Amino acid sequence: MFDEPYKLLDYQMTFKSINRLKYLFFLTTFLILANHVHADTFEKILKSEQLRVGVSLYEPWAFKDQADNLTGFEIELAKQLAKDMGVQPTFVTLEWSQLISALEAKQIDIIISGMAITPERALRVNFSSAYASAGFDVAASLSKTAHINSLNELNHPEITIGVVSNTAPEQLAKKMFEKATIKSFKQHYDVRKAILNGEIHAWFDSTPIPRYLALEYPDKVDTPLKEPLLGYKAGMAIHKGNQEFLNYLNSWITARDADRWISSRHKYWFESLDWKKK
Fold first, then answer.
1. What's the CA gap between 116 and 205, in Å, rounded?
2. Three-state SS for 115?
3. Does the structure show a pLDDT above 90 at 156?
4. Is 265 helix (H, G, I), strand (E, B) or coil?
5. What DSSP element (H or E) covers 89?
6. What SS3 state is found at 46?
7. What's the pLDDT band for 275 if we cut at 50, 70, 90?
8. The domain that contains 194 carries what CATH number?
9. Is 158 exposed, middle or buried (0-12, 13-18, 19+ CB in 10 A)?
10. What is the pLDDT of residues 92-105, one digit of tens each?
11. Which of 13, 42, 151, 162 can bridge 200 by disulfide, Cβ–Cβ 3.0-4.6 Å?
12. What distances in angstroms separate CA 217 from CA 55, 190, 195, 229, 230, one per listed residue?
């Protein structure tokens, strides 16, 4: 009769061991299937020979030329990436706020649109290594800010600052100009139109957008800052967990950075206006 407690203990230990083995079995199976699904995502792109690229239109990242063809730094980047992968790029033009949702809904395979790498976005997407850097700048309406002499004076309740919604500049503007009225627009074109029409005092955005606008409309817009504020790194965004695709993107960025192809194209699009002459 003294053997009974030990038999019960052995039974409980055996039962726990079986449950633990079942758990490990199901976990291993799940991970294998998950990796297989994500591997299939990359393989599907290669087999279909089609890469669906999500972009948002704004110069000089991505825009339409006079012939209504897509061009810009990100367009060149995506075309070269697709060429090196042996596939054809299909561009899907979306509003900025729709990019990540479209990726999650699998309407696109990748976002190549100058997207800042942030911890918040990394909860929803997998970012590649950074392929470009940028800062933040201010475009001021000459007619509405003639009386303003410093950046601090923009932080006032009577001042309206335009930004594009769901962007890093929007988040930073709300912190820097917490007393001002921050007006969010869906697209860069909308903010551009607003400042040129004198509807807002200033436009806070990534470089070089404000400076290009000032060069194009020197009688309407000025860039009061000598140097851009802060900075961020831009990366390509893909579905969560797609490790094989991510490995390829990081390898591609490393190789194209080493041969200076990325830096040469970035210099062309962001340090000159030669592309505007075409």
1. 12
2. coil
3. yes
4. helix
5. strand 88-93
6. helix
7. confident
8. 3.40.190.10
9. exposed
10. 999 998 999 999 99
11. 162
12. 26, 16, 11, 22, 25
* Spatial separation of the C-alpha atoms in residues 115 and 105, rounded to whole Å: 18
CA geometry: angle 274, 277, 278, nearest 5 deg:
105
pLDDT surpasses 90 at 28: no
pLDDT category of residue 54 using cuts at 50, 70 and 90: very high
Instruction: Name the residue among 253, 272, 262, 237 with its Cα closest to residue 114.
Output: 237
On the CB side of 105, CA atoms within 13 Å amount to 7
Span 82-130, pLDDT tens digits: 999 999 999 999 999 899 999 999 999 999 999 999 999 999 999 999 9
pLDDT exceeds 60 at position 1 = no
175/126 same-domain check: no
In a domain, 220, yes or no: yes
* CA-closest candidate to residue 273, choices 228, 218, 212: 212
Measured in degrees and rounded to the nearest 5, phi and psi for residue 136 equal: -120, 145
Q: Are 160 and 195 in contact (CB under 8 A)?
A: no
Q: Are 79 and 42 in contact (CB under 8 A)?
A: no
Q: Report CA 39 to chain centroid distance, whole Å.
A: 23
Of 27-36, 87-96, 135-144, give the lowest mean pLDDT range. 27-36
Q: Please indicate, yes or no, if residue 52 is contained in any of the structural domains.
A: yes
Compute the C-alpha angle 239/245/250, nearest 5°: 110
Helix (H) or strand (E) holding 182: strand 181-185
What residue numbers bound the domain in which 243 lies? 48-131+235-277
